[in-house]
Amino acid sequence: MFPPETTTPKRQSSATAESARPLRQDAQRNRDRLIAVARSAFAAADDTVPLEGIAREAGVGIGTLYRHFPSRESLIEAVYAAGLDDVATSAQTLLEQFPPDVALRAWMNRYAEFIATKRGMIDTLRAGWASGRISTPTTRERVTAAIGTLLAAGALAGSLRADVDPEDVTVMLLGVFLSTTTNNTSEQTDRLLTLVVDALRPQPRR
Fold first, then answer.
1. To 5 degrees, how large is the angle CA 129–CA 134–CA 140?
2. Considering only the top CATH level, what class is 14-199?
3. 48 in helix, strand or coil?
4. N or C terminus: which one in the chain shows less Cβ crowding within 10 Å?
């Protein structure tokens, strides 16, 4: 359902171009708020929700939304990029707050939220990637790198196995999310993710 998305971007996207230019504090707050509201809306429904409603929920006018995101596609691209950045960078932050096995489980919850948002945007993303209008991100590599960081810390602490390939964990997680696409309940997803973490704990010696 979800492509590997491993191609190196060949152009600077509209979202990337804007983020490269410093924004005033108030403008940055507006942009961040729009992305957060859109992210929640796309996760709850899909990316066809009215942009006027997103602007209203973010507390700005539709003109402000279009100043930051000239098209629906550019907003979708920014939401996806922000979610991926959160997933990729949160591993180290969580390790500073929790033991590695606990941090891994908390990180999986963030990854699950990212996947839920992605499901609501997948048709637009696929079309944008195919046409080149949206840069193709290195999603799988960044996710696997985050898992590797967590596994390495857990192996050092003795709370996670040292013989696991991070790519194998990525595959397991994608299996969980793909299998719960239809008739999904958060309870089932939580149970499956907990089982994955349990499988990554060191096995008792016999």
1. 65
2. mainly alpha
3. coil
4. C
